Structures are given as C-alpha cells and as structure tokens.
Amino acid sequence: MGVLVVGSVAFDSVKTPFGEARDILGGAATYFSLAASFFTEVSLVGVVGSDFTDEHVQVLSGKGIDLRGLERVPGKTFRWAGEYSYDLNNRTTLDTQLNVFATFKPRVIPEYQALEYVFLGNIDPALQRDVLRQIKRPKLVGLDTMNYWIEGHLPSLHETLKRVDLLIINDSETRQLTQEHNLLKAARRVQQLGPKTLVIKRGEYGVLLYHAGHWFSAPAFPLEEVFDPTGAGDTFAGGLMGYLAAADSQTPADLKKAIVFGSVLASFTVEEFGVQRLARLTYPEITERYRQFKALTHFEDIPT
C-alpha cells in the first residue's frame, strides 16, 4: 500500500547553538516523504518555484518518491528561517516567505486518487478538505495541524476533523484544541471531534498514543548530539504513516510499532541539519536502532 502526502516543500535557513545552515531543502512534505519511503511507495502533492533545481528533485526521486504531483511554477519556493534556543526546545521564526505556496491549491492527479493511505500536512483546513474530496475511498486519513489554524480557523478545522482517522499534534496544541489541560481528558475530547486515534508529540519527552480507550507511551531516543530539530515531527509522521501503509493494518500492535519507527526516524533527522541524515540513511540502520529502542524500553514482569 502506498501513501499520499500533501504539504509544503521548502528551503530552510536554520541557526542553532551548534551551527547554522542556509537555504537547505526542507518542508513538511519533504521530511515526511523521505521517512515514509523506507517502508512504502510515496506520492507527493506540493508546489515549488523555478529556483527548485534538478539536484533538489534528485534528493526525493532518488528515494523512489513519485513527484508527478509536485507542481513547478514561476516564482520562488516557500522559504522559512528560524533560530533555536540552547536547549533546542524553543524556536523563534525569523522570516517566512510563502512565495508560490501562498496560492497553492492541491490537485490530486488521477493516478493518486485511488490511494488508500492519505496524510494531510499542515495547510489550511479548507484545502485539506479539498484534497479529501479528490480521494475515492481512503482507508486511513492522517492529519497535522498547528496553533495558527486552531486560533483562527477553528470551525473549519472542526469540519475537517470529522473526516480524519488519525490526528498528530503536540501537547500544547492538544490542550488548545480541546480547552482541556489534562491530556487524558483532552484525548477523549479529540475523539469526539472525529479522529479515532490521537498521537501527541512531546518533543524530548517522547510521544503518547491514544487509541480505542488505551494509552501507549514511547520515550524519545537518547542521543549524545542533536544539531537541528527542524522536521523531526514531520519525519515522525512519515515513519508512522509509512509503516502503517506497508503493514496495511491499524491494530493496536501495529500502531505501537509505527510509533516506535516514527520515533526512530526522527532520532536520525536531528543528528544533522536539514534532510542530510535522512538522505543517506539506510534501512539496516533503522532496524538496528529499532532494536536498541526496544531494549531501552523493555523491563521484566513482576515475578509470581
């Protein structure tokens, strides 16, 4: 089973206490696609400008990502610049230039319309619904959103969430969306909005999964060196959705595996700036870290 992702392809300029990189390949759909490509076929719908070179295309197509849905139009590609604090938990946006992304109207080409696994990246909820109207019979619809849409487009977001199976947001956005401080109560409120499964990202503290009335918690993989957290959440989503599409299953057991694979992929992303680490990552490296992750979180039952 392949997966369709709709979202941003961008150029990022990032500064952290450990270095700086300018005009590097980024964007939510980019990170998602590279991560998901380790598990399944990926079809990308997005838009770039005339400054998006064949070299940038090769980073994606070299991983087998289907780019027939990536429009190239006159103008500049979406650009973002940000700076992180010393602990890497706080980020300041220095510049945002939407450029061609400002008028982006996702068009799902006929070859993509039968795909059953769909991930809607962080775009206007109205555009997310437009995408779903172009999909024939989706089996699993995942969605990402952010505080901007929660604050300014809440009724539209609520309408979109009615058609979503799996929601991936961070803990502060979960509280903001539901007006509940307690995450357990907030998760139940989210399910009332539509999504059967809620995945709450908690940064360096890991991730929480709420599904069918049950919780699953996974820590972040401990690393000695973290250079750039940009795209970690999108990488996580790509690993999660990619695994579920490959397994063609949404059982609690497979959801847990998907959470761990997403966390493993994200742990590689933050080791270098941009998509550099993802671009040269190998599947054996992923499976080895998965085993390390399992050993890290395993403990024995109480003896009888």
Show the helix and strand layout:
Layout: E1 3-6, E2 10-16, E3 19-26, H1 28-36, E4 42-48, H2 54-61, E5 66-72, E6 78-84, E7 91-97, E8 117-120, H3 125-133, E9 140-144, H4 147-152, H5 154-161, E10 166-170, H6 171-178, H7 183-193, E11 197-201, E12 207-211, E13 214-218, H8 232-247, H9 252-269, H10 276-279, H11 283-297
Parallel strand pairs: 1-4, 1-8, 2-6, 4-5, 8-9, 9-10, 10-11
Antiparallel strand pairs: 2-3, 6-7, 11-12, 12-13
Helix pairs in contact: 1-8, 3-5, 6-7, 8-9, 9-11
> Widest sheet: strand order?
5-4-1-8-9-10-11-12-13
CATH class: Alpha Beta
Tell me the total number of β-strands: 13
Give the overall form. globular
Radius of gyration: 18 Å
Topology as a string of helices (H) and strands (E):
EEEHEHEEEEHEHHEHHEEEHHHH
pLDDT averaged residue by residue: 95
CATH architecture classification name: 3-Layer(aba) Sandwich
**For the record, what is the CATH homologous superfamily label?**
Ribokinase
Helicity level: 25-40%
| Beta-strand share of residues | 25-35%
Largest sheet: 9 strands, mixed
CATH topology title = UDP-N-acetylmuramoyl-L-alanine:D-glutamate ligase
Q: Residue ranges: pLDDT <50 for 5 or more in a row? A: none
- Given helix and strand content, the structural type is alpha/beta
Please report the number of helical segments.
11
Give the N-terminus to C-terminus distance in angstroms.
44 Å
Q: Provide the number of structural domains.
A: 1
